[in-house]
């Protein structure tokens, strides 16, 4: 069995190709790879749970929610709101340009805006739940459903590089652009506070280093 048969294929549509090109032109390679891996882990979770593509969830919307979820951390983002909200806004703009309807856009917006909100995303429908769980799995959290072979295949095709540190750097940089971007007890606010108080790695980096994917 080849590695490519262990994991789902990426969607072969014009909008999917445009989404990949979009994140690779706006995000660093580690962050862009993270976004793609998040989709693959989300699909593996859906398969593990017996969810049926096209019946129980929309694979196309899941792809776009995962792949576009970190656009708010990109240097070209406006820098006036929390990165999750700006990412949701930028994803909505992209999907509107691709011809998606208002209901589809709103579902993706919600999934992205809530992706860092544990306990809330899981109660806002299957798309928001799978998006959050797929993203979390790429940090090594709650990824027991992924076999070693599947994990190796995902990382072979989409290398990890220095993802966690690169993403933390982007979040902290975005947080510094406006006080509204880094409210206390948000991920951005806490990462910015940790970086300001300690020259070493943040708690997120330490947790990721001790996780399954190292």
From TrEMBL:
- Which stretches make up the HD domain? 31-122
Which InterPro entries does the entry link to? Answer: HD/PDEase_dom (IPR003607), HD_domain (IPR006674)
The record's annotation in Pfam families points to: HD
Output the Gene3D superfamilies linked to this UniProt entry.
Answer: Hypothetical protein af1432 (1.10.3210.10)
Q: What name does the UniProt record give this protein?
A: HD domain-containing protein
Organism, scientific name = Kitasatospora sp. CMC57
